[in-house]
From TrEMBL:
<dbReference type="InterPro" id="IPR000634">
    <property type="entry name" value="Ser/Thr_deHydtase_PyrdxlP-BS"/>
</dbReference>
<dbReference type="Pfam" id="PF00291">
    <property type="entry name" value="PALP"/>
</dbReference>
<dbReference type="GO" id="GO:0004794">
    <property type="term" value="F:threonine deaminase activity"/>
</dbReference>
<feature type="domain" description="Tryptophan synthase beta chain-like PALP">
    <location>
        <begin position="18"/>
        <end position="304"/>
    </location>
</feature>
<dbReference type="GO" id="GO:0030170">
    <property type="term" value="F:pyridoxal phosphate binding"/>
</dbReference>
<dbReference type="InterPro" id="IPR050147">
    <property type="entry name" value="Ser/Thr_Dehydratase"/>
</dbReference>
<protein>
    <submittedName>
        <fullName>Serine/threonine dehydratase family protein</fullName>
    </submittedName>
</protein>
<dbReference type="GO" id="GO:0006565">
    <property type="term" value="P:L-serine catabolic process"/>
</dbReference>
<dbReference type="GO" id="GO:0006567">
    <property type="term" value="P:L-threonine catabolic process"/>
</dbReference>
<dbReference type="InterPro" id="IPR001926">
    <property type="entry name" value="TrpB-like_PALP"/>
</dbReference>
<keyword id="KW-0456">Lyase</keyword>
<dbReference type="InterPro" id="IPR036052">
    <property type="entry name" value="TrpB-like_PALP_sf"/>
</dbReference>
<dbReference type="GO" id="GO:0003941">
    <property type="term" value="F:L-serine ammonia-lyase activity"/>
</dbReference>
<dbReference type="GO" id="GO:0009097">
    <property type="term" value="P:isoleucine biosynthetic process"/>
</dbReference>
<keyword id="KW-0663">Pyridoxal phosphate</keyword>
Length: 328
């Protein structure tokens, strides 16, 4: 079994990146608390540099390869936020980065990455994106893989240090999964600080590679069909699988439609502009609310806010009305 991330490594990452990231706010949401009928606190990583938590892991990773940045070539696969964080850090540190994105990734994210000076290659789907990255790696590029890199997960875990310090009463924390690095870092931090806390991973149907892995007892490849590009990983890594197995209470799988309703609910009930991955959290809490004790204190990691007005309107217009877990 791979070694699990140590709390000391996350604390070291927090010190390492402290000057370059925002210590984002943790706030009580009266509107969502009324919906869930329990106190709900939000960790506002949508206000982080680059609009998501990804800057934490990227900056921690780049600190560890600082001597390679000026001469090396790097490549990464991204559904949006990882690419934005990499492009911003690369621009600051004068590194050469190529971001490979499936065509389902938000066009606004592609434009932002290109504007920051990074190269963008668009592929038909996420499997093709990973295959293209492998080809570039064979030609000499170094792959930056946030689905399998503990240095990145340690950086992501720094948000949990802040969250539990600001909200020590938390009993249940919901985290969108994607490749699992944030889940691993957050789980390692919170369970080492407060062992009785419950960590819930959240995936969308068609991007539920971690749920499938935990059911099978090993990582298994899936066909990604979810519209939520930031959660679309066809195969979780062995290291992130073992962290989920060690720390997660359960994986909650919600529909794309419920994630859309959750995104809208975040705006209407919490005053937050968020992505679909964050919207999925509200649907997940509703889905298992009956399992939570009446005195539970819920924490939601608001993982990102990189969504265009055009995409928000498109998804809002197409989602079914009058049903679903994310309704108030």
């Amino acid at each position: 079994m791979p070694s699990l991330i140590e709390l000391s490594a996350i604390r070291a990452a927090a010190t390492r990146i402290s000057r370059d990231i925002i210590r984002t706010a943790s706030i009580l949401s009266p509107g969502l608390s009324a919906m869930i009928k329990r106190p709900v606190y939000l960790k506002l990583e949508n206000t982080q540099i680059g609009g998501s938590f990804k800057a934490r892991g990227v900056l921690n990773k780049f600190a560890g390869v600082a001597d390679e940045l000026s001469s090396g070539r790097f490549v990464a696969v991204s559904g949006g936020n990882f690419g934005i964080a990499l492009a911003q850090a690369a621009a600051k540190l004068h590194a050469m980065v190529t971001i490979i994105m499936p065509q389902t990734a938000p066009a606004a994210s592609m434009r932002k990455i290109r504007a920051l000076g990074a190269s963008v290659i668009v592929t038909d789907d996420v499997k093709d994106a990973f295959a293209h990255a492998e080809r570039l790696a064979q030609a000499g590029d170094k792959i930056l893989d946030d689905c399998a890199d503990t240095a990145i997960a340690e950086g992501h875990g720094t948000l949990a240090l802040e969250f539990i310090e600001d909200c020590p009463a938390l009993t249940d924390v919901f985290v969108a999964v994607g490749g699992g690095a944030m889940l691993a870092g957050v789980g390692a931090a919170l369970k080492n600080i407060k062992p009785e806390i419950r960590i819930w991973g959240v995936e969308s149907a068609g991007a539920n590679s971690m749920e499938r892995a935990l059911c099978a007892g090993r990582p298994v490849e899936i066909d990604v069909t979810s519209i939520i590009s930031t959660l679309g990983v066809p195969l979780v890594s062995d290291i992130m699988f073992h962290h989920a197995k060690a720390y997660v209470e359960g994986i909650v799988v919600v529909s794309d439609d419920d994630a859309i309703r959750g995104m809208i609910s975040f705006g209407e009930n919490a005053g937050q502009w968020v992505e679909l991955a964050t919207g999925s959290l509200i649907a997940a809490v509703h889905k298992i609310a009956h399992h939570l004790p009446s005195d539970a204190v819920v924490g939601l990691v608001v993982c990102g806010g990189n969504i265009s007005h055009q995409d928000r309107q498109k998804w809002s217009a197409n989602q079914p009305r009058g049903r679903g877990a994310a309704q108030a």
